[in-house]
């Protein structure tokens, strides 16, 4: 009986040590990206248009149409969640063909010209990489796994129609899948 208890204890000890080692960044380090200046959470129409322009030029196309949900900015970065997909309208409701997976992104911008220069996309499954991209104020606002709002979906559908110059009759529907 003592041997069984000893073997079970050693097994639990090894398993626990392995889990602590595997998730050591979560257990021991809870560091977030340091903001450059002060984090501002209010929307900026000018910067939102700059993000849309950057996405049109760099991210949209092969992935479908990209739209974003704004979360904030500091003096160097814009913080958003991206949704890139094909949008379809069925019974007056806009849906995505490939699912509704938001990808968090940090976009570097030039504050003098208000143009977006580069984009870093976070891995939703790796919280340590997320903490390296986002300051705590922004990270706490992002709700992971939430569905995009109808306004975001509608914006994606409208932009998809404008870019493809599709008439409503030519626009893809869910029946085309």
Count of alpha/pi helices: 6
Distance between the termini: 62 Å
CA radius of gyration is 22 Å
The amount of helix comes to 25-40%
The H/E string reads: HHHEEEEEEHHH
Strand neighbour order, sheet with most strands? 1-2-5-6
Shape estimate? extended
Main sheet specs? 4 strands, antiparallel
Beta-sheet strand percentage?
15-25%
- Low-pLDDT sequence parts: 165-169, 171-177
State the secondary-structure class.
Answer: alpha+beta
**Average pLDDT, to the nearest integer?**
81
Number of domains: 2
Number of β-strand runs? 6
Feature tags:
177 residues, alpha+beta, 2 domains, 6 helices, extended, disordered C terminus
Description:
This protein has 177 residues and is α+β, with helices and mostly antiparallel strands. The protein folds into 2 domains: 1-30; 31-176, no CATH class. Helix content is 37%, strand content 23%. The strands form 2 sheets. It has a 4-stranded antiparallel β-sheet with strand order 1-2-5-6. Strands 3-4 form a two-stranded antiparallel sheet. A hairpin with a 3-residue loop joins strand 1 (65-73) and strand 2 (77-85). The protein is extended and about 75 Å long.
């Amino acid at each position: 009986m003592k041997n069984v208890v000893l073997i079970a204890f050693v097994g639990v000890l090894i398993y626990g040590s392995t889990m602590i080692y595997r998730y050591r960044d979560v257990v021991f380090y809870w560091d977030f990206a340091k903001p450059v200046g002060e984090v501002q959470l209010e929307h900026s129409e000018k910067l939102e248009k700059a993000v849309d322009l950057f996405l049109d030029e760099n991210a949209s196309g092969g992935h479908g149409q990209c739209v974003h949900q704004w979360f904030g900015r500091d003096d160097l970065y814009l913080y958003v969640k991206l949704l890139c997909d094909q949008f379809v309208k069925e019974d007056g409701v806009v849906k995505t063909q490939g699912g509704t997976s938001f990808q968090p992104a940090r976009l570097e911008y030039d504050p003098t010209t208000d143009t977006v220069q580069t984009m870093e996309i976070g891995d939703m499954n790796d919280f340590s990489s997320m903490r390296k991209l986002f300051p705590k104020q922004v990270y706490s606002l992002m709700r992971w796994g939430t569905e995009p709002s109808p306004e975001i979906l509608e914006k994606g559908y409208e932009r998809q129609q404008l870019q493809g110059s599709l008439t409503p009759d030519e626009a893809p529907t869910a029946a085309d899948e």
